[in-house]
Amino acid sequence: MHHRRPTAAHRFIRHCARFFGIALVGLALSAPAVQAATTTARQKTAATKKHVAVAASKSVKASSKSGGKSHRQVAARKSAVAKTTVVSKSTAAPRVRRTLAARSAKAPARAVAAAPERQSFGAAAGLHAVNDPLDLKSSVALVLDQDTHEVLLSKNDRAVLPIASLTKLMTGLLVVQARLPLDEPITITQEDVDTEKGSHSRLAVGTTLSRGEMLHLALMSSENRAAHALGRTYPGGLDAFVALMNAKARQLGMTNTRYVEPTGLSSSNQASARDLAVLVNAAYAEPLMRELSTSPGYEVAVGRRTLQYNNTNRLVKNPDWDIGLQKTGYISEAGRCLVMQTKIAGRRLIMVFLDSAGKLSRIADAQRVRNWVESASAAGGAPAVGAKIQPAARSTRDS
What we know:
Layout: H1 8-28, H2 32-66, H3 70-106, H4 121-124, E1 138-145, E2 151-155, E3 161-162, H5 167-177, E4 185-187, E5 208-210, H6 211-221, H7 224-232, H8 238-252, E6 270-271, H9 273-284, H10 287-293, E7 297-302, E8 305-310, E9 323-331, E10 335-344, E11 347-356, H11 361-378, E12 387-389
Parallel strand pairs: 2-12
Antiparallel strand pairs: 1-2, 1-11, 3-6, 4-5, 7-8, 9-10, 10-11
C-alpha cells in the first residue's frame, strides 16, 4: 500500500499541537487547581483521540477495501484530531483561571484575633459591680467640694488601685517645689527608655530639652521619658527622688499611697481616690502646676524638627469647662483614670475617676457629674447625695 508523506501543513499542525501541549503542562504545574483542570482536559482530549482513532481504524479498513482514495480522508480526520486537541488545550487555561478566581472569591478571609486587654485590678476585685446613682463607668469615683471638703459622691473611694500617669502629679509637684532652675538642659538617656511596658516616645535618646520643657510635656502630654528624666536628674538621683515621693505622700496624709518610680508605668504605683483628692488640692496650690497641666498644646524644637504635643484631656479645650488642674492616666492594670479641679455652678470641685472602662468613659463620667451638679443647682440647692457607695472593704494593693 502506498503512503503519502505528510505535507508541510500537517507538520505545522502537529508542531502547534505539541507546543500548546507543553505550555499547558507548565501551567498545570503552577497550582493544584490548574493541575486538576488540566487533567480533565487531558481526559477529554484522550477520549476524543480514542474516538477519532477508532473512526480512523474503521476508515483504514474501509480504504483497504475501497482503494487508495481513502488516504486523503484519513489524513483529513487526523488533521481534525490535531485541531480538536489544540482547541481543547487552548480553552482549558481560561477555564482554570475562572475556577481559581471563583474559589478565591468564595474563600473566607482569615480573621486576625486581637490580643485581649489585660484585666484591671479594679475589675478583678469586682469593683465595677458596685452601682451608683449616676451610673458611672469608673469603678472608683470621688467628688468633693474643694472649699468645704464636703463629699458629694463617693464610690469605692478607699480602694487602693494602680494610678498610672496620675503619678506625674507628684513628680511635677516635687520638681516645682524644689525650685530647681527650669532653664537647665536635661538630656534623655537610655535609662529613661521604658522597660516596664515598652511604650513609645518621640523624645529619642540624646534629645536635650530644658527642665521646664520636660515638666510641661510630662504634665500636659504625659510624656514618660520626660517624667523619668526629671526624677533621674533630681539632686541625689532617681532613688532619692522616689523616696522623696513617698515621704511627701506621708506628709500630705496620703496613707494608702505608694510610689516606686516617677512615670506611672509600674502598676506598683498605687493610691486611693481619697489620697488623690489630697494630691490634687496640694498641686492646685502651685500656679505652675495649674498652668502646665491645663495647657492645650505645646511645641518643642528637637534638632531641626519641631514637635507638636497636645493635652491628653480633651476637656481643657472645651469652653464650657473651667478646669484649674487636671491629669489623665492609663495602663491596663489601672484602666482609664482622670483627676480634675474644676468650677461647676459656682462651686470649686475636685473629681477623681479611677479604673474607667472605655477610652471616653472617664470624660463621660465627668460630664455626668457636671450635669448632676448643675441640675441640683438649678433646682435651688446642693446635690442631693453625699452618697457613699462602698462594697466590703477590700484592697488590691501589691505587697
